[in-house]
Amino acid sequence: MKRLLFALFCLLSLTARANEPIATTADATESENFNPGEMILHHIGDSHEWHWFSIGEDHYTTYLPVIAYRAGSGLSVFSSRHLAEGEVHEGLKLEHEHLVSEDGSKVYDFSITKNVATLMLSAVLLLVVFTTVARGYSKRGTGSPRGIQSFFEPVIVFIRDEVAKKSIGPKYERYMPYLLTVFFFIWFNNLMGLMPGGANLTGNIAVTLTLALMTLLITLFSSNKNYWAHIFATPGVPKLLLPIMIPVELIGIVVKPFSLMVRLFANITAGHIVTLSFISLIFIFRNIGIAPVSLAFGLFINLLELLVAILQAYIFTLLTAMYIGGAVEDHHDADYQMGGGEDADPAHVPAH
Amino acid sequence: MSSLLPDSGSPKPDADSDRLRTVARYSGIGAQMAATIGLSTWAGYWLDQHFQSKTPWFTLGLMLLGLFAALYNVIRAVSKGE
């Protein structure tokens, strides 16, 4: 831990020092026109084409389909090649990666963007991997696993034993499909985002919003009467305080998935920004001496991100399981009094 | 599905996984606290803008409510135990 803090301190102080020369050598950056902020935001954002890399002026790009609906002119489907370099096609153009119509009418953008393409790709990958794993079980039963099955079995067992069973209790089995899906979806997409050319899918707030919304809905639909009794008539709280306690509890329902959403989004996006910032240092300083340092730190952060990828997937799954566990719990013994526990005095709580 | 997977038997005390679990749990509580205050303050700010109030009563009120809710939820989550 101490070493980690030291490393973080080094990183932070390095970026602080790196800022100084930029201000003093403004003319150098002006002539080259390298804007690290713009480059980084472009990398972590969504786009209508998939830009792989550039050599000089040659750009290697995969053009993705644009699907747009306008009330007046209906559906238009064409390649995003026609929109490159700010061109106008069928009355549509791109403004900062945002599809707008020339006459200002409302555009519903259903395009297969880079993120949507990645989403589909990861769905196919997950299906292929896990049908293979499932086929292994239907063929060999509980016998020794083979191939890719033997890699995923410990992970699946970990999610079942350490996450689901411990957080949800005896009713865990119903929620295993969702927990496993969400864990592997986040993990796979975090890793795919770290690959060169990969999209920042789990660092997109819309994706994490959808995941958090699903957690919220599953929690609400699986909640029992104890859960709601706890919100609208918190045990041990005087009736007069209920007008305050009910909003407080209701805020809690919304905030739990909200914090899930922000945590995943912020962690993955921050990782991408830090890695790209270190790579940008080379182009900011334009000095060969800085390259080894910048690459070493970039590599270090990238390796750290490998850990963060599985850690964030685990945290999302664990907290989801805990929220579900709170909703399906049969009784709240320990909750009736502050600091309650196994041997706490039941005080004013009636037996039930 | 789970009947096909080998059962690891009775849950044995696994120190490493329990520590990881605790870290994740408490970091979740902290983030939740920040989110509660942030979200309610933002809601109050939005309401003040919407009603164009001269004194930001909504911001103040909802911020204090959020603060209270955050503290209440932290105390409850921490005292709940495992």
From TrEMBL, chain A:
InterPro entries: ATP_synth_F0_asu, ATP_synth_F0_asu_bact/mt, F0_ATP_A_sf. It is a multi-pass membrane protein. CDD domains: ATP-synt_Fo_a_6. The chain crosses the membrane at residues 116-137, 175-195, 201-220, 240-258, 264-285, 297-324. Gene3D superfamilies: ATP synthase, F0 complex, subunit A. Its main location: membrane. One of its GO terms (molecular function) is proton-transporting ATP synthase activity, rotational mechanism. Belongs to the ATPase A chain family. This is ATP synthase subunit a. The gene is atpB.
Automatic annotation (TrEMBL), chain B:
This is F0F1-ATPase subunit. Keywords: Membrane, Transmembrane, Transmembrane helix. The chain crosses the membrane at residues 26-45, 57-75. InterPro entries: ATPase_put. It comes from Hymenobacter amundsenii. It comes from the Bacteria. It holds the Pfam family ATPase_gene1. The keyword Membrane applies.
